[in-house]
Amino acid sequence: MSQDQALPELGHDGARLRAYARFVALACRAALGLASILVLADLLLIGCAVLLRYVFSSPIVGNDEIVASTLTALVMLAAPDVLRRNGHIGVDVLVGALPPRLATWASVWSCLSVLMVAALLIVNGWKAVTLSRTIGLLTEGHLEMPVWMLQLFLPLGGLLLALVAVELLWRALARPAAAQEAKAGEP
Amino acid sequence: MIAAFMLVALLALLFTGIPIFAGLTLYGGGLLLLVQGNLGSVVSIIFGELNQYLLVAIPLFAFMAHVMIRGKVVDDLYDAAYTFTRHLPGGLAVATIMACTVFAAISGSSVATALTIGAVAIPQMLRYGYSPRIAYGVVAAGGTLGILIPPSGPMILYGITTDTSIGGLFIAGIVPGLVMALVFMAWAVFRCATEGEAVKRDARASGREMLQALRKSVWSIALPVFVLGGMYLGVFTATEAAAAGVWLALFVTIVIYRTVGWREIWASAQDACRLSAMLFMILAGAAVFSHVLTKMRVPQQIVESLAAMDMGAMGFVVVMMLLIVVLGMFLESISIILVTTPVILPAMIHLGIDPIWYGVLLVINLEIALITPPVGMNLFTIKAITGSKLGPIIRGSLPYMLLMGAVLVLILLVPGIALWLPRTMMGG
Amino acid sequence: AEYTMRISHQFPPSHHTAKRLAQFAKDVAKETDGKVQVQLFGAAQLFKPKQHHAAVASGQLEAAIILSIQWGGSLPEMAVTQIPFLMSSPAKQKAFIGSEAAKLLDQKMLDKGVRNIGWIVDTNDLIFTSSTQLLDDPSKFKDVKIRGLNKLFDAGLIAMGAVPVSMSGSEVYQALQTRVVDAALTGVQAASSRKYYEVQKYGAATPIFLVFDNLVVNPAWWDGLPEDVRAGITRAADKAVQSSLITHEGVNPDDMKKLTDAGMDAVVLTSEQAQAFEAVMQPAVREAFLKSSGDDGQKLIDLIKAM
Ligand code: NA
Ligand code: NA
């Protein structure tokens, strides 16, 4: 997998950045672990549903409802780790050809755009959660789970994305300084 | 005019290289702020897009592919394919397009097809010396067959929206789907035969070698047979087929091959999550963008003004197809169906256009949309599984875009290619 | 126009409610002297059906159509229309419009953040379709895998011994075709438009319950409209409701003919057969209804019985 490539080197950046990066990595990995458990749960659930319906003629009630409800969580929990590994897809046709200085600013801009989306997910997502609670929205089907609980994953995902975006921003801004230091140190 | 300006502005934003999900979400949100002064419930659009049972096929098929890759089942499969085709130019490319065709009969989604076959096929084609560009193009294009060969998600949606027989649409997709697959294969052979740094070709394998290769790959060939069989015998639905595929892949790799344990399962699940997150975040962004466009009535007004022109049935279909090519650059298939078909339906009925014929043309056009930049889900899918730059993927897909256009024109001129089978089978 | 009324709904253009709304748009323009422009967003192009409630309550949209069977547990009293044979006759349906029971439910919807301005009738019939046998008696449902409707109505199917399977709408056609499920139930017109006759051999139809397509509006927007504009919209909505009322007894023969012409073995249940269904299904669904809706549920049943 392409995303398994090593993370960018830290160079001369401070211990604070290193500590922060460790914390973010931990949070992202935990979230990804949860997401992976959800995939396995979906697999188990659908497998049981087929088995019960076909072999025992008695379906699991609300199976499709649970599976659907795991997907938002899955995406919101896995997206931050993808971001941390620079795995999110962008149109790289122009950016790939930029000189290093401009490339740095492009990645700063990219981090800012993610930060804005993260803010959107947090603020607007929280609004959605509140609204769903107020009007008592339930999922469609037999289980009728409160929608606001599922929607909570949106601001949560936003929070995680913001944590990662801040790290990437920090790295992007720290790297030119580090590069200059390295240059000055050359004989 | 305003619409064109809006699309160019989005293009510019995406070309700054920010993640596509961010670009689409921010652009949609920005338009909303501009037009109605608040962000409204943008995030609930994202929630509505993601909270769909049918989407679970994507992580499950990704999971299946990675289990099979980690379990080395795929190596045997491609060794067999290579043994059978090594004396032909572009043999593995042809085998991959065939695999796409078979998988398209299992899945109703093009992204699922490109994702599953691509994860498996691209590394193998590279292993056998194919250039990345060829490998990417073959899968990006072959994957689009997922929505033309039944079952097909977009056909179901189109059928419900226009009151057209879904069974009829499914049957009508078969012949064009096979024609398309053959055209792709012919191109792949031609391309590989003429390319300078030709893929190495070996002597034809002996009957014994072929038999041996077949025996080694029997489990990987059995897998799609089981899944297809289970689907058409009514054991499970099209979406459940994805889970059935994973269970079978787990059985083969754990019990028969003994190459997969907990560690591999866990790693495959993580890969499935990452891939799904990449693609679904874009789907979410695309949903926000098309929601805002729909709310501003941009596509509706364009379609309405075109539908109001008096240009005869053929002219109408041609103009619609051209419009959908443009919309297809920016919008996702589902949105295109929902914003265009209800508006043009009255004109279609009035002009006496066969809805099944139009449906097939529409779906082929949506296939083109999957590989046209800037928003082409199959391009992104290839990028997600390979980590390649977008440039080579787009360049690899470009010839197929033109070939699809050619097939589209062919069916435009000879409707019988699409309509003969449903008319024969359903007596319509 | 001074005001814009955006209405989102889920129906394809050929659905009778979609057509009625197109007429409603014209009527509103006429009744309000062009002060209000209605913009229709059909076929769920703007919002998915389950998003309509939140979209209207939050003011993202001025109006939307919410089906009476879509509320589920978030407004359990609305399900009274689904109790088999309680109010499916044309007489009860006519009496319900403007009744105390309707007003009670209007208030319930208002409590949930949306104001209902039209009880547009969608359908009062249902057809049990099957690939193996004519499901014309409750005894034939034993162990039949059937695509259910919703939690409440499925209680009636379970009472007949059926095994309701829940499944997303876009998977149903194929699931019926490959016989993942043996049977399904849907409105008689929907059985035509969704082409169930292509994949189901048999059909047993009966007017069993009512489905309304409620036209709901954002209360703040509504209250902010001038008196005369509100009155104009109300007149247009009333006209839509009146035109939607079902006047024929039993099942519309034209709808049945479409199915039989397409080769389906479709029949309308006799009154004895229908009574057999009522005897098994009504108590089961009523019990489930009362369990989720409580005192107001009982009050609604009493009001409707007294109509
Ligand atoms: Na397909
Ligand atoms: Na595109």
UniProtKB/TrEMBL annotation, chain A:
InterPro entries: DctQ, TRAP_DctQ. GO terms for cellular component: plasma membrane. GO terms for molecular function: transmembrane transporter activity. Keywords: Cell inner membrane, Cell membrane, Membrane, Transmembrane, Transmembrane helix, Transport. It is found in: Cell inner membrane. The chain crosses the membrane at residues 26-54, 104-126, 146-170. The keyword Transport applies. Residues 44-174 form the Tripartite ATP-independent periplasmic transporters DctQ component domain. Its main location: membrane. It is a multi-pass membrane protein. GO terms for biological process: C4-dicarboxylate transport. The complex comprises the extracytoplasmic solute receptor protein and the two transmembrane proteins. Part of the tripartite ATP-independent periplasmic (TRAP) transport system. Belongs to the TRAP transporter small permease family. This is TRAP transporter small permease protein. It comes from Allopusillimonas soli.
From TrEMBL, chain B:
It comes from the Bacteria. One of its GO terms (molecular function) is transmembrane transporter activity. Pfam families: DctM. The keyword Protease does not apply. Keywords: Cell inner membrane, Cell membrane, Membrane, Transmembrane, Transmembrane helix, Transport. GO terms for cellular component: plasma membrane. The chain crosses the membrane at residues 53-71, 91-122, 134-160, 166-190, 218-235, 241-260, 272-293, 313-344, 356-380, 400-421. It is found in: Cell inner membrane. InterPro entries: DctM, TRAP_DctM. Residues 7-417 form the TRAP C4-dicarboxylate transport system permease DctM subunit domain. Its main location: membrane. It is a multi-pass membrane protein. Belongs to the TRAP transporter large permease family. The complex comprises the extracytoplasmic solute receptor protein and the two transmembrane proteins. Part of the tripartite ATP-independent periplasmic (TRAP) transport system. This is TRAP transporter large permease protein. The lineage of its organism: Bacteria, Pseudomonadati, Pseudomonadota, Betaproteobacteria, Burkholderiales.
